[in-house]
Design brief:
single chain; alpha/beta; Aspartate Aminotransferase, domain 2; Aspartate Aminotransferase, domain 1; 2 domains; 7-stranded mixed sheet; 5-stranded antiparallel sheet; 39% helix; binds pyridoxal-5'-phosphate
Length: 395
């Protein structure tokens, strides 16, 4: 990048793809490209088999009870929209309540807002305490009108790991189902959906070394059976008559149209790649890097780290306060990001699709460094050196 070694620290936005994943995509299009589930011909059967094996691989990776509980979507956003629509149609009426939290990604806010305005329901928000989630009042927030709680397991801005086990326990104690936005946890921490016991879970393949345009909506079979399809078309039907249409079994009921069967195959290869390293080892490696990065950052007096010292999964957010005649002044994150970019360091700046949290922090945005399994200490060192130079230029 600009003649320098690329230091890619924007993994929370999307990960780079290992060669095996790229090879899988080429191999699939080259050797067995055919539409699935419909063809009598051999190629179609091969493609169908790969797609269904990929579904099983996803179920195994997350320890779902059955592959029927794995619905392929376009991504986390698509999964959450699908759930908000479908769940809303079946279970949400005027005066009901949905609970999300302050630190959610827009894709775990806006679909619920849209549902609430469609159904005249109320969106309630779990507040922050300092720079972490405050769930002390959650039990009081839950009422007989609460229909669903949806929270992120890991914040894509702060990197903090939310106490979802406790939130799930509280929700279930009041008979309320819960959805976990796992877009930022699935790449970094081992997840066992049966132990976690959430009712729904969403994630994106492109943040897990897989292809873009593919994601997962997991739902417990008992819940998915009660939900109407969000989209109509081919694949999702059993029989279509103008007098009325009957729907396909799980999970096909939720998969209208030709699915991304090349993407699902490549995603399964990405999951294999992660499993070969081992999720516990990936988590440990990234937690070390995150801690090391925070240590190095905390030596720079101009840097304010958000949620410093909290357990984090691969994400560090900060801002730079430089000296000026009026005293310490916040340097716009965009300027820090631009100066880092010129030195070959890719970070993200801005509101990270979580404006309510950024407003709460009362800043124009943050600079975010986020790690993947291929990052190492040298990446952190190069990033810190580049940041020191940027601070010098800005002071
Ligand atoms: C990235 C992200 C999303 C949205 O994922 P898409 O792949 O853009 O659909 C949702 N929630 C969190 C926490 C994220 O990090």
């Amino acid at each position: 990048m600009y003649g320098k070694r690329l230091v890619y620290l924007d993994n929370a936005a999307t990960s780079q793809k290992p060669q095996v994943v790229l090879d899988a995509i080429v191999e699939a299009y080259t050797h067995w490209n055919a539409n699935i589930h419909r063809g009598v011909h051999h190629l179609s059967q091969v493609a169908t088999e790969h797609h269904e094996l990929a579904r099983q691989a996803v179920a195994d990776f997350f320890h779902a009870r059955s592959a029927k509980e794995i619905v392929f979507t376009k991504g986390t956003t698509d999964a959450l929209n699908m759930l908000a629509f479908s769940f809303g149609e079946a279970f949400v009426n005027e005066g009901d309540e949905i609970i999300v939290s302050t630190l959610e990604h827009h894709s775990n806010i806006v679909p619920w807002q849209m549902l609430c305005s469609r159904k005249k329901a109320t969106l309630k928000v779990i507040p922050m305490q300092g720079e972490v989630l405050d769930i002390s009042g959650l039990e009081q927030m839950i009422t007989p009108r609460t229909r669903l709680i949806s929270v992120a397991q890991v914040s894509n801005v702060l990197g903090i790991i939310n106490p979802v086990e406790e939130i799930i326990r509280l929700a279930h104690a009041h008979g309320v189902p819960i959805c976990i936005d796992g877009a930022q946890s699935a790449p970094h921490i081992p997840i066992d959906l049966q132990t976690l016991n959430c009712d729904f879970f969403a994630c994106s393949a492109h943040k897990m070394y897989g292809p873009t345009g593919l994601g997962v909506l997991y739902g417990k079979e008992t819940w998915l059976n009660q939900l109407p399809p969000a989209e109509g078309g081919g694949e999702m039907i059993e029989h279509v008559r103008f007098e009325g249409t009957t729907y396909n079994v799980l999970p096909y009921k939720f998969e209208a149209g030709t699915p991304n069967f090349i993407g699902s195959y490549a995603f399964a290869v990405a999951l294999q790649y992660m499993q070969a390293k081992g999720m516990p080892a990936i988590m440990e490696h990234e937690m070390h890097l995150t801690r090391y990065c925070e240590e190095q950052l905390s030596r720079l007096p101009e840097v304010k780290i958000y949620a410093a010292g909290e357990p984090k999964a691969g994400v560090v957010s900060f801002n730079v306060y430089a000296d000026s005649r009026e005293g310490k002044r916040l340097v716009h994150p965009f300027d820090v990001g631009t100066l880092l970019d010129r030195q070959g360091v890719a970070v993200r700046t801005g509101h990270h699709c979580a404006e309510p949290l950024i407003d709460y922090l009362q800043v124009p945005g943050t600079v975010r460094a986020s790690f993947g399994l291929y990052n190492d200490k040298k990446d952190v060192d190069d990033f810190i050196h580049a940041l020191q130079r940027a601070i010098m230029m800005l002071s």
